[in-house]
Design a protein that fits this description.
The structure is a single chain. The chain has about 425 residues and is mostly beta strands. The chain has one domain. It contains 2 helices and 34 strands. The strands form 3 sheets. The protein has a 20-stranded parallel sheet that branches. A 12-stranded parallel sheet has the order 4-7-10-13-16-19-22-24-26-29-33-34. Strand 1, helix 2 and strand 2 form a beta-alpha-beta unit. It is elongated, with a radius of gyration of 25 Å.
Length: about 425
């Protein structure tokens, strides 16, 4: 017994000590000197703390302006983020390549990360934050940052795994406000993208594991699309409003969209290019169709399968649903309301039966199951509400009144 106890005690004493995660402080009144980083003796720059922090550490950033603070085409002043990698490495201001938490103490409205615009003479503006490692958290609800005047606001490389990006604002960046290169189980929550080239973007990458969640984000007044996704992404509670492209551009396979709203976008509310599951969505007042099925200017046959349930498609300038040429399969449509669309057509505004709510231009689509929906009238679609080129969609039985559709989402602002 004593021998066993002695052996166990010796093993415990010989085991390496587990590193204790540290908390670092950054303030505008701090100084980048030896021993800085404590609450009462904070560092001045985030990049200095990143050079000291280890896995599991938390970095707390006080209110203020960080980055290229005088916007003089470089990170060279003592109070600026002199650790930025310009025209080298990540070409970013803050590389996060190990599992750390970077949080503000006073929220995005009071904590600005500024790349200063054209800071990279060879390759253009520097990105604000590049996540290139596992387990990184950038922001939290009420603890995020405003990211402005960069290339990407936040970029996730294929080396990122399971990142959490929450409570941030991306404003006036040259490319996407938030961009993920690959789908590796990330979570984007309660972020806002304003006046970027695009709001939220994702592209395909080899070895994707899937499972990313984009919830309760807002994309407004971006010059391109509000949201563009790769494969296996779930959208829940997102809003795309007044963007210069599509509200949601869903180009990958296995996409789910629920509790999402698209309004006043210059193109479609939702562009579906692969199989998708949609439920509880609104697409209202867009300059294109409410839902656009297919890839614009595609030169190959395309099947876009899945289900659309409890959708409100109202008052869009083009059709409620528009099927593009060479689409050979479409999702089923159930428990939805589509009427008052096709406002570009020169019909009296009080004659909803003359407006085209379902427009098939495929040329190869044999069937469209659009039964059990409400067409703005108790007796089903009027003579002009279904516009087709050689097929008759299934619209019966139909709903005599509009279904109740409740959108569940949180506002990040």
């Amino acid at each position: 017994m004593r021998l066993a106890f002695a052996i166990a005690l010796a093993a415990v004493l010989a085991a390496p000590a587990t590193a204790v995660a540290a908390t670092w402080s950054v303030e505008m009144w701090g100084r980048d000197v030896a021993g800085c980083g404590k609450k009462k003796a904070p560092c001045r720059t985030i990049s200095h703390v990143l050079s000291l922090a280890g896995p599991g550490d938390t970095i707390l950033v006080g209110p203020g302006h960080y980055g290229n603070t005088n916007r003089d085409n470089g990170f060279v002043e003592p109070a600026e983020e002199t650790g930025a990698q310009v025209d080298t490495g990540c070409n970013c201001m803050l590389p996060l390549d190990q599992p750390v938490r970077l949080l503000s103490t006073h929220g995005a409205a009071m904590t600005v990360l500024d790349a200063g615009g054209d800071t990279g003479p060879s390759v253009g503006p520097t990105s604000l934050v590049t996540i290139a490692g596992p387990g990184v958290r950038l922001g939290a609800r009420g603890r995020g940052f405003t990211l402005t005047n960069g290339f990407w606001g936040v970029e996730l490389t294929p080396a990122a795994r399971g990142a959490v990006v929450e409570g941030n604002i991306a404003l006036r960046n040259e490319a996407s406000g938030f961009f993920a290169n690959g789908d590796f189980g990330h979570r984007f929550t309660l972020n806002t993208a304003i006046d970027n080239s695009a709001g939220f973007g994702q592209q395909f990458s080899t070895g994707e594991t899937g499972g990313s969640l984009w919830e309760d984000n807002v994309a407004v007044m971006n010059r391109g699309s509000g949201f563009s996704s790769g494969s296996s992404v779930t959208f829940d509670g997102n809003l795309a409003s007044s963007n210069g492209g599509h509200g949601f551009r869903l180009i990958g396979t296995g996409t789910t969209a629920r509790n999402c709203v698209a309004n006043a976008n210059e193109r479609s509310g939702f562009n579906l290019q692969r199989d998708v599951v949609m439920e509880n969505i609104r697409s209202i007042g867009n300059e294109g169709p409410g839902i656009l099925i297919g890839q614009p200017q595609q030169l190959a046959f395309r099947r876009v399968e899945g289900t659309i349930t409890r959708a409100e498609l109202l008052g869009n300038q083009e059709a409620g649903i528009l099927v593009l040429p060479m689409v050979t399969a479409v999702p089923t449509l159930r428990d939805s309301a589509l009427f008052g669309n096709d406002r570009e057509t020169d019909f009296p505004l009080n004659d909803l039966s003359s407006l085209c709510d379902l427009d098939n231009r495929s040329g190869f689509l044999n069937s469209f199951d659009a039964s059990e929906n409400y067409w703005g009238r108790p007796d089903g679609p009027g003579a002009g509400q279904v516009c087709d080129t050689g097929f008759t969609p299934i619209t019966t039985p139909f709903l005599a009144k509009s279904p109740k559709i409740k959108i569940k989402r949180r506002s990040p602002l």
